[in-house]
Amino acid sequence: MSDQPKSPKASTEGGLSDQIFAEPLANIAGFKFDQKVVDVFPDMIKRSVPGYATTISMIGDLAQRYAQSNSFCYDLGCSLGAATLAMRHHIRASNCEIIAIDNSEAMIDRCRQVMAADSSELAVDLRCQDLQDSQIEKASVVVLNFTLQFIPKQERSQLIRNIYQGLLPGGVLILSEKVQFENPAHQELMVELHHNFKRANGYSDLEIAQKRSAIENVLIPETLDVHKERLSDAGFSSADVWFQCFNFASLIAIK
Ligand code: GEK
Asked: What pLDDT does residue 37 have?
């Protein structure tokens, strides 16, 4: 536990500003969620993902609505725990516990400090684990907030089926992803709008280009149709987009 004073509602805000790709790099390695990324993560995700703050805040509202008493709520690929905190501050159901999982040790270590600085009573169990080895059980809410996109494509259906099996009747999966478009002109427009968003947030063309090279074989987007079909094949009774900004969307799938 941290020695820092607890605040009633801690946040993941703070940290350094993201300069990781600011200087020209001779070799651009594949993107990793290491300590360097952890140190700038809140700034990076806010300046890179349109609608991120809205998505986080609405996850709190959705969790309040769908969390069931005597159940678990999962935050899969929790990073520093922004979605975990949103759920922690909103869930009113009794005897709920949040299980937050990430396979980056650096992320989990920092997330532990964030949770320790937050005084909410709702229990949080932090696990440094691969999602593909994680058991989902007695779940009323499962959050995959911009995480499935990092799982190899051929392994995504197994993970979604595993989540479906672990959900209670009436339970929900909130799935946020960077998405791809079938129509090449539409795809190009969305990429351009996204890059304009990053430019408006202070990223240079060099930063945008180098980040793109680092992440292109690591973050693999799919179309909304592919996501919906996978959710339906797994057994979800509905899967609808509740938020979208450019090529970033969030779905809610109900068991
Ligand atoms: C947020 N949800 O702030 N097992 C566990 N964790 C993984 C795996 C895996 N196989 N692959 C990637 N991760 C967060 C943001 S970030 C999204 C999620 C982004 C973890 C990885 O370590 C990282 O912390 C997270 O998934 C993706 O609401 O940076 O674009």
From this structure: 87
